[in-house]
Structure to design on (137 residues):
């Protein structure tokens, strides 16, 4: 099952990098539960798809690259790097025109060949600093 989970997780690059939202329904179960401490309101599949759309509208050149994956039993952990230029307002933040690069890790839980849960840990603070929303120390 590890190789199937890895192959499905790699499809996230196409979902995020190309905005191909039909992939979301292939990857995630309808009962998907999202756990993101920075965005607690993004907690199910529909709000997650809306979130992806908002990110891609605000950062039209958004790219994510999965760097590492480790799978065991029904879970997969991945380390990734994301970047984008903040060209349009999103999440109540005025467009800065600045580019940011940040890292993160996600743990996915799979059931019946689909992702049913995701836990996120990302360096949102660094991204906000690079965009000029939070001053650098």
């Amino acid at each position: 099952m590890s190789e199937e989970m890895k192959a499905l997780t790699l499809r996230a690059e196409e979902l995020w990098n190309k905005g191909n939202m039909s992939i979301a329904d292939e990857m995630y179960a309808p009962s998907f539960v999202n756990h993101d401490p920075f965005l607690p309101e993004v907690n199910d599949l529909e709000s997650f798809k809306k979130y992806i759309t908002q990110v891609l509208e605000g950062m039209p050149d958004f790219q994510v690259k999965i760097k590492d994956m480790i799978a065991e039993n029904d879970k997969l952990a991945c380390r990734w790097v994301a970047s984008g230029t903040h060209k349009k307002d999103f999440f109540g933040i005025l467009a800065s025109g600045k580019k940011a690069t940040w890292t993160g890790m996600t743990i996915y839980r799979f059931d019946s060949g689909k992702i049913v849960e995701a836990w996120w840990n990302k360096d949102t603070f660094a991204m906000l600093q690079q965009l000029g929303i939070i001053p650098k120390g």
